[in-house]
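Our preliminary data section would be incomplete without showing what the modeling component actually yields. Below, a chain of 340 amino acids is followed by its predicted structure, encoded as tokens that our downstream tools consume directly.
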Amino acid sequence: MRTILVTGGAGYIGSHTLVELLQNTNYRVISLDNFSNSLEKTYDRIKKISPRPLETLALDLCDKTRLYEALGRIGQIDGIIHFAAYKSVPESMKEPLLYYHNNLSSLNNLLSYANDNGINHFIFSSSCSVYGNADDLPVTEESPLKKAESPYGHTKQVGEDMISFFCKSNPSFNAVLLRYFNPVGAHMSGLLGELPLNRPNNLVPIITQTAVGKNALTVFGTDYPTRDGSCIRDYIHVSDIADAHVRALHFLMEGKNASNCKVYNLGTGNGVTVLEAIASFEKVTGRTLSYGIGDRRGGDVIAIYANNTLAKKELNWVPRFGIDDMMLSAWKWQQNLELE
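Predicted structure:
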């Protein structure tokens, strides 16, 4: 049985990918997390969805000595899906050194372990933030990477470069870099979803918390050169993102990759404004949201959405859920949280 290590497995996208692996593969699955931005009880939620065995490690990837000791006890690892990273754009603007240390030191340590132990299949959690303010939309994998608008985005650019250069120096190492756009929503069961430990920075959890009176929604900027003045994003359901990671892993393990460092966009291909996302939530839930209009927020790009043709063609991946599904599943998750 092949063994797959998922770093940041208790996090938002990591946890949904664990579900996909447990439900749709026969791999031995091991999750690693230090719970700096997640909760250990997330594993209990996963078990309610999939009862298959899940092994877990509590560990900080930035601690290279402990990382080597802990992974050395596992035995042969056949593939790594690397999510573990800080991901808040506003926080990265305030704490840039924290982001450079955590996101890049952890990646360096993990690649070093893979190199020293013959682990040759690697999936990297990247981001559309690497494109910056793109000249043309939708962006393809060949679109030039503009200057990053935030330290978070820059860590993803540097992380991609680290992996790309490592692949060039090690032809037996195979990597897929998945640039996702804006993951939102929750598992359709409503048992698993996004759970910010502090005040959320992402739109959808702010929307759902506002709907239950736990937050105040602000639209940051309605003077952008877009159809309604608010930023445009390519919202993609988190379970579609999780599915793409499993497909990318199979893609590498089956030797279908023409080069040993492949890049794919993960988005629906449709740009949705912030105000349109709010309207979708109101439509599917029947709730009217009260929100304010604020100034533009530092680090935000004006508009970004994907050309996902390459992922469809090579990974045989097609997004299954639309914006209404995303909002309805997020609301179901929020309602379940209110019952706990």
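The mean pLDDT is 95. Residues 156 and 256 are 25 Å apart (CA to CA). Preliminary results of this kind motivate Aim 1 of the renewal.
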